[in-house]
# Entry
Amino acid sequence: MVETVGKARPLSPHLQIWRWHVTLAASILHRVTGMLLYLGLLVLAGWALALADGRAAFDAYAAVLRSAPGLALLFLVTLSGFFHLANGIRHLAWDLGFGFKLKTANATAVVALLFGLAAAIAFWWRLSAYGVFSHG
Amino acid sequence: MADLRTPLRRARGLGSAKHGVGHFIAQRVSAAALVILICWAFAQTPGLTKGGYDGARAWLASPINAALASLLALTGLYHAQLGMQVIIEDYFQQPLTRTGLLILNAFVASAAAAVAVISLLKIAFGGGA
# Structure
């Protein structure tokens, strides 16, 4: 009984057998960026906690975020946010029955990737104008 | 135990466990809410980085900002928990690992939601520092 259940059952094709494609990249990146955004929300919860705790805790937390690894993480989180937003809208359109044609699916994947990158760079360029790199 | 058929044989043909639809809908509805909330958050962030501690406290003294920030934390973490659940279910087959990770996922998301909302409320109501 147990042996029958334990026998190797056919698996669905896994990552390595697919030819690389832009829609595949967008699909995988949707997961990766989703996980990064989970981390980003934990950082945000920590920010709220530090802010509620008082000036000393907030300044210490801000100093960590303004360090090089902190800024790198925050950049990745914003990059993830813009891409996941665009690709999420793409997913919602699919759920409504739009955008399944091969050319459309390819084009929207490219748009989502480019939008994510461009919006993140524009966002941080704007932040730099607000002095995010200068104090602390 | 008189039935000698395997569990797999018995389950075949009975369809899904009927637990997927609620998850599917919740994922999409929270996504729609987050489209609005994340755009608001991205629009607010540059101003927030400028004011430091006092600026952030003053910003959250506004009920609209405190409400939307709470909604962002709650909806975001809910959506994140649902998404992470799918990832765990896709890649971890061992029941113990899988269940353990699913519980950990629930704990982390719930704890972060509680910490975020209580902190935001404390600031919004002007208590403490």
